[in-house]
Automatic annotation (TrEMBL):
<feature type="transmembrane region" description="Helical">
    <location>
        <begin position="266"/>
        <end position="292"/>
    </location>
</feature>
<protein>
    <submittedName>
        <fullName>Glycosyltransferase family 2 protein</fullName>
        <ecNumber>2.4.-.-</ecNumber>
    </submittedName>
</protein>
<dbReference type="InterPro" id="IPR001173">
    <property type="entry name" value="Glyco_trans_2-like"/>
</dbReference>
<feature type="domain" description="Glycosyltransferase 2-like">
    <location>
        <begin position="10"/>
        <end position="172"/>
    </location>
</feature>
<dbReference type="GO" id="GO:0016757">
    <property type="term" value="F:glycosyltransferase activity"/>
</dbReference>
<keyword id="KW-0328">Glycosyltransferase</keyword>
<keyword id="KW-0812">Transmembrane</keyword>
<comment type="similarity">
    <text>Belongs to the glycosyltransferase 2 family.</text>
</comment>
<dbReference type="InterPro" id="IPR029044">
    <property type="entry name" value="Nucleotide-diphossugar_trans"/>
</dbReference>
<dbReference type="Pfam" id="PF00535">
    <property type="entry name" value="Glycos_transf_2"/>
</dbReference>
<feature type="transmembrane region" description="Helical">
    <location>
        <begin position="233"/>
        <end position="254"/>
    </location>
</feature>
<keyword id="KW-0808">Transferase</keyword>
<keyword id="KW-0472">Membrane</keyword>
<keyword id="KW-1133">Transmembrane helix</keyword>
<dbReference type="InterPro" id="IPR050256">
    <property type="entry name" value="Glycosyltransferase_2"/>
</dbReference>
Length: 329
């Protein structure tokens, strides 16, 4: 008996009320072209939205039982929303996609085709992007730094837009760190990974959920989560500072011995040196503190997220009230 393959779309939502229906319509249009041999599920994870995203999702859910809705009890962050979707997915393959329509649903067809040819991970790699100069510059700088610091190779110009085979999803579920950088974790687990190039569209509507502060935090998660180079740089910078200090001592002694009359007492050099060394020490303490803070968070072993609303299953057979089940995770 022929069994259809099941593919789940994991769709993190944060204040995307105006984008939900256009995204859903595009997903339906795309998946309707490849219904033969596949069943689809759309897993929407509401990350504590403050607009009417959740009510829009539940209305959508009432019309299409392929839509699953999970809602966090508060905002936990994009990466944890994706993690919740991966935890909930019961499919042969999972496609992770942002919900502002910058990740074109039409690319999913190419991802599926490459998966059917044997790839375990198919990541969508940006060939072009319709972003501001600042966004492009910071993204380029981040990937440049990550390529030199990370202990694993993380493809450039990629986001979380990708297809994961079920065995990759099951492996990722074993990784439960709080400060998550999923594209790094996907590279870390290995398996056969291939790229599909695409042109990233402009945001459909609304404002980004990743302002500068979150972008910086996300970049640090990528660097500190997959590299100990910052710790190594502390000792290297300390050695360099010591060498400069030693040269300064040699210079002062030589001046005292060879040309004592030219020695001019003053405080400028001393004060600059003190502030310089103090700044370096505070910087290095900050690096150490970042790693120690992450150790502290992991040692608490708290749940990654809490789900307050779950709407899933066949609508026709679901008991009354089953669309609003309160669960703690």
């Amino acid at each position: 008996m022929f069994t259809k393959k099941r593919i789940a779309f994991v769709l993190p939502i944060f204040n995307e009320a105006t984008n939900i229906l256009p995204l859903y319509e595009e997903l339906v249009a795309v998946t309707s072209r490849i219904t033969s041999g596949y069943d689809f599920e759309f897993i929407f994870v509401d990350d504590g939205s403050s607009d009417h995203s959740l009510s829009t999702l539940l209305e959508l859910r009432a019309k299409d039982d392929r839509a699953t809705v999970l809602s966090f009890s508060r905002n936990f962050g994009h990466q944890l929303a994706v993690t919740a979707g991966l935890d909930a997915a019961e499919a042969d393959a999972v496609i992770i996609m942002d919900t502002d329509l910058q990740d074109p649903p039409r690319v999913a067809i190419e991802l599926i085709e490459r998966w059917e040819l044997g790839a375990d991970v198919v990541y969508a790699q940006r060939r072009s992007r319709k972003d501001t100069f600042f966004k492009r510059f910071t993204a380029h700088s981040f990937y440049w730094a990550l390529a030199r610091l990370a202990s694993i190779e993380i493809p450039r110009n990629t986001g979380d837009f990708r297809l994961l085979d079920r065995k990759v999803v099951e492996e990722l579920r074993k990784y439960r760190e709080h400060d998550r950088f999923l594209r790094g974790l996907v590279s870390h687990v290995g398996f056969q990974q291939e790229a599909v190039l695409f042109d990233r569209d402009a945001r459909f509507s609304g404002s980004t959920g990743y302002p500068l502060k979150k972008m910086v935090r996300f970049a640090l998660d990528g660097i500190f989560g997959f590299s100990t180079v910052p710790l190594q740089l502390i000792s290297r910078f300390g050695a360099l500072t010591s060498a400069v200090a030693a040269l300064g001592v040699v210079y002062v002694l030589a001046q005292r011995l060879l040309a004592p009359a030219t020695t001019v007492p003053g405080w400028a050099f001393v004060m600059v040196s003190v502030f310089f060394i103090g700044g370096v020490q505070m910087l290095m303490l900050g690096v150490l503190g970042n790693y120690v803070g992450r150790i502290y968070v992991e040692s608490q072993n708290r749940p990654l997220y809490t789900v307050s609303v779950t709407a899933r299953g066949q609508l026709a057979s679901a008991p009354k009230g089953a669309e609003h089940v309160l669960v703690a995770s």
